[in-house]
Amino acid sequence: MISESEVLVFKGGVLEKRVDSVAEEVEARVYVDGVEVLRIGTAPHMLKELGIGCALAKGFDLSNVQVVVEKSNILLFYAVPGALRECRCGSDVTVRGEKILEMFSIAEKRAEMFRQTGCFHFTALFTADGNLIELVEDVSRLGALLKVLGVAYTKGVDFCKAILIASSRAGHEMIKTASSVCIPIAAFRGAPTRKAIETARSCNMTLIAHIRNGRFSIYSGFHRILPEARP
Questions:
Q1: Which alpha helices (H) appear in 30-140, and where do they start and end?
Q2: Where does 95-226 sit in CATH, by number?
Q3: What are the φ and ψ backbone dihedral angles of 49, each rounded to 5 degrees?
Q4: I want to staple 120 with a disulfide (CB 3.0 to 4.6 A). Which of 58, 113, 154, 168 is the partner?
Q5: What strand order describes the sheet that includes 185-188?
Q6: Tell me, what's the pLDDT at 116?
């Protein structure tokens, strides 16, 4: 996932030879029963989970799925299209604002590959109590999300009760993917797009963005974020 490359660094008017850590990337293709459904630049790890997350987000029933990875090709068999997924959470998830900041801090500290290269995004899933369920780093922000969904699905995670924390901006595709598995709260370090905000509001998702310096902005689903508890 990480290799080394010789570089020249310009600093103070001088060129200095150094060795830099760089991220590996492959073009992965996901096929469902022989039909290509995704082509994505991604780190060459957790490709099986990438395929599962992709098919899950596209609404396939994976009850009997079989996954084969051949180099950077992910082949899924017996995935049934048109699975109906109704986002019905028994009791709506709520969380205090300071807990969101704690989750982001925990995820950021676990993001080892980002610190080594500056090239990786991270996506993490937490419980509403702030316990880390899973964290994945990838050169693609969508790849990181699909992989963490794939891992969580194989572990039987209830997405209706999970909170998503991501280091990227909040693009439409990220919101669309998270909402496809009924995640109620998604929080991003970067800014949201207008289309992302509209998508979050249409599916009643809580969208949080601009996490930095002990603050963040809430763009939809305001009722799920509670103020700080007062004595």
A1: 47-57, 97-110, 112-117
A2: 3.40.140.10
A3: -65, -35
A4: 113
A5: 132-138, 121-127, 162-166, 185-188, 206-212, 215-220
A6: 87
pLDDT value at residue 82: 75
Sign, Cα dihedral of 72, 77, 83, 89: negative
Considering just the CA atoms, what is the radius of gyration of the chain in Å?
A: 19
Reduced to 3 states, what is the DSSP secondary structure of residue 148?
helix
Task: Locate 198 and state its tokens.
Answer: 């509209």
**In the numeric block, which tokens belong to residue 1?**
């996932």
Q: Which residue ranges in the chain fall short of pLDDT 70? A: 83-91, 230-231
The region, left, alpha or beta by phi > 0 then psi within -120 to 50, assigned to residue 151 is alpha
pTM for the structure as a whole: 0.93
> In the chain, what are the domain boundaries?
95-226
Q: Which amino acid is at 57?
A: A
Tell me, what's the pLDDT at 92? 84
